[in-house]
Amino acid sequence: MFQICSHLEFRKMVRRSTPQQRIDDAAFPIRVKVFAPNKGYGGFGNLLNDMIYWLQDNLPRGDFGQYHGRSPGIRESTGFYFRTLEDAQRFLAAFPSLELADGVSSSSYTSPALPSGGAPRSFGAEPSG
To answer: Quick check: pTM over 0.85?
Structure first.
């Protein structure tokens, strides 16, 4: 026998779990997002495994998280969550070839906080004027 449910009743019945990336993003105080070193096919290659093994070998379980992503209009990236700045710095020191995925300097980035709403000046550049 079928039961007819209103739209609101049906919505109450549907439960979806929260994606782990959203949970980690809310829980961890520090996020480090890096570009894949290979711009073409393959992205991180074996380097991603090396980074995850380093995390498992050097940090307590639960003190880090990892997610895969893509920077808008840019290239493949991945992010790592840390509980302390020291752990994030040690991680970056262990992989000096990594490039931070700074999408703010991209021409596709816009923000009302910027003078013309467009891309900001280069990181570290002195303000003009």
So the answer is: no
- Within 13 Å, how many C-alpha atoms sit on residue 75's CB side? 14
User: Would you say 83 and 29 are in contact if contact means Cβ atoms under 8 Å apart?
Assistant: yes
How confident is the model over 27-49, as pLDDT tens digits? Answer: 899 999 998 887 655 678 889 89
User: What residue type is 115 in one-letter code?
Assistant: P
Phi, psi of 75 (to 5 degrees): -125, 175
CB-side neighbour CA atoms (13 Å) of 119: 11
C-alpha triplet 74, 40, 121: angle, nearest 5°: 30
Q: Which two tokens stand for residue 124?
A: 């570290």
Q: Which domains does the chain have, with CATH numbers?
A: 18-102 (3.30.70)
Quote helix, strand, coil % in the chain, to nearest 5: 30, 15, 55
Cα-Cα-Cα-Cα dihedral sign, residues 101, 21, 82, 37: negative
What values do phi and psi take at 32, rounded to 5? -120, 120
